[in-house]
Amino acid sequence: MISPVYITGTGVVSAIGLGKEATLEALLGNRSGVGQLKYLKTEHKEFPVGEVKLTDAEMRALLGIPQDAVTTRTALMGMLALGEALDEARLTPDLLPKVGFISGTTVGGMDMSEQFYLDYLHGDAHKEYISVYDCGSCSEMTAVHFGKFAFATTLATACSSAANAVIQGANMIRCGEADIVVVGGSECITKFHLNGFNSLMILDTKPCRPFDATRSGLNLGEGAAYLVLESAESAKRRGVAPQALLSGYGNACDAFHQTASSPDGEGAYRAMKEALDLAGLKPGDIDYINAHGTGTPNNDVSESQAMIRLFGEQVPPVSSTKPFTGHTTSASGSIEAVFCILALQHSFLPVNLNWSQPMDNGIVPVSKPEKKSLNHVLCNAFGFGGNDSSLLLSKPDR
Amino acid sequence: MKNNNIYVLSAKQISMQQPLSEEWMQNPVLYDVPFSRSIDPSFKEYVSPIEARRMGRILKRALATSKEALKTAGRETVDAIVTGTGFGCIENTEFFLDALSNDGEQLLKPTYFMQSTHNTISSLVAIQTKNYSYNATYAHKGISFESALHDAWLQFQLEKIKSALVGCHDEMTETFYQIMKKGGVMGQDDERCGEVAVSVVLSTNSEAQPLCRLTGLKIMHQPAMGDLNDAVVAMLQSAGRSLDEVDYILTGISGNHQNDEAYLAETKALFGDKPLLKYKHLFGENFTASGLGFYVAAQCLNAGKVPTHLFVNANEATDKRPKCILLFNRSDGKDYTLTLMES
């Protein structure tokens, strides 16, 4: 059992809103942000998506960045979320040189590279965007907007990237290498992965229906969220109260297939089990699970099996919030961790929208709004390649 | 909690030097071209022919170096697989982008996309070695390898793991090289670019004959010289060493003029006249080239000698047995890493 890491600030942006207030309102009001594609330039108008309802130019304006600056959408969304998290934790620029930054992204600056790829090949136009193609440069751009962090690095484990950033940050704090590490992830929708997911035939042309018998794929989403992880001593010294505790976490590999989950959910089971073990908690202590729940036939069976294996007859209330936001891929781990923290703080179970019929051998998710006092919740994020991670978040002691 | 005994049990590479071999210590392959792909071994031993046909080069190399590293370490499995890659599976990314740009959005096949994400590499190694344990991938430019190493380092200290396979992999096509050069990312001045495949097995047990030990690791972002100096002092103190006991500083001097001048100035300020070593002139530059530096230092410590052709100043070359090498990586002058390795 570990001593929990404090979470002293959070920030989020997704299809359901910019900032935590708008996010909470949408979650409590069952208002989905998934709809007709508007911002991404693509032929695939048939797929509903969860876009952040701002153009890049609007985001630059909000952030006070010159309109001619070289930016990527992933970095811009990251800055919006990071700003809120830093403000909440009262981390001013003078404090950042002692603070670490770990971000998750896989798409990185692909949004610009896919637009300018032919230019890169045949001339000099837009060549200033070449150096912001890679994942690391997006994290760096996000971080330096606020000042000089002690260090910065990037996790790229596809859809569990942000969750793994949380884990690495927690390990640093537990090792005493840092008092404060800001962790999370950001990812915009690109033509590249919209088409990639389409080629794998895992996109639904209707709003996604996780854990429903009629589910037939996911909707892509985008967004960013960051969590300020802090040692208990540092938070007490600075007089910052924890919003929640990170009491456990697990990372395991499904070791089954590059783009499919094992039928028995081995990786998912191990990740959740490890999170419980690290926290010194029993399955019965968990009050809610925010599932990965993408809405693909494969994921929801695999994840259900893992939950049934771990929790037996007593699976706690489960929901996937992806019908609200779409699947925000690399950022989903931290976005959904913020949803969990909101649920802990405001005592409610987020609804699994669009659900109506139970699937075979699956769990039955939360389908109606419910107020419930929560002490411990699990948040799952699973990636391609079977990179499965689970975070255990708890209400701070009063 | 500090664990000073992390043994490097094995270190394998595929690069522009002879693959899976330390032949470069005696007879390095010399190049007069600014970019070269790696010299590949036969992959028959590591991948079945059917799988090999569908698998990108970066993946085949990762399997080869990983399996060889595990074999030499005498291990079938490890407690964690952690990988660094600056660009991920760039050849498949390029194929998919080509198709997207030239053929449009209607006829795309999934094969390239399935093998285009960064974590494809680490996952593949896990799938092929049936390893369900911790698995992660870092992609942060020139410190991608050290970020992966740091992940394992922390878990060793927390006693979460007793062994780890840490690798770093980057591939580069001619097209991608030209784009990176155009964007000023790498390949400037006399800098030669290459591809990287490195796998190392680390363990807290010295069961196999270890190559060396990893005794310090620090990652920093835009440090001032004073911060760097403090970090060096703290690292040496924690390892129970003095600067006098450090035999060599392994630098990332690469042929990029501005970068090389900064290396010389900064090492002078931090380490005085300590002899400097380099490796990128033999192995080329790439985001994870510093993993090749780790491999080079491990092999030199194990062999008990540093080949003359690694010295920045050839007249400093000696037969002295190296016991302690400090790896100094300044990635684009923004991200810095210090890695302490001892025999």
What would you say this structure looks like, in words?
The complex is a heterodimer of chains A (398) and B (343). With 398 residues, chain A is of the alpha/beta class. Chain A folds into 2 domains: 5-238, Thiolase/Chalcone synthase (Peroxisomal Thiolase, Chain A, domain 1), CATH 3.40.47; 247-394, Thiolase/Chalcone synthase (Peroxisomal Thiolase, Chain A, domain 1, 3-Layer(aba) Sandwich), CATH 3.40.47.10. Chain A contains 12 helices and 15 strands. In chain A, strands 1, 2, 4, 5, 6, 8, 9, 10, 11, 14 and 15 form an 11-stranded mixed beta sheet that branches. Chain A has a two-stranded parallel ribbon with strand order 3-7. In chain A, strand 10, helix 10 (297-311) and strand 11 (318-319) form a beta-alpha-beta unit. In chain A, helix 6 (161-174) crosses helix 12 (332-346). Chain A is globular. Chain B has a 10-stranded mixed beta sheet with strand order 3-2-4-5-1-6-10-9-7-8, with helices on both faces. In chain B, strand 9 (324-331) and strand 10 (335-342) form a beta hairpin. Chain B has 11 helices and 10 strands. The model of chain B has no long low-confidence stretch (mean pLDDT 96). Chain B has 2 domains: 6-203, Peroxisomal Thiolase, Chain A, domain 1 (3-Layer(aba) Sandwich); 212-342, Thiolase/Chalcone synthase (Peroxisomal Thiolase, Chain A, domain 1), CATH 3.40.47. The longest helix of chain B is centred in the N-terminal third of the chain and has 16 residues, at 57-72. Chain B is α/β, with parallel strands linked by helices and 343 residues long. At the A-B interface, helix 4, helix 5, strand 5, helix 6 and helix 7 of A face helix 3, helix 4, helix 5, strand 3 and helix 6 of B.
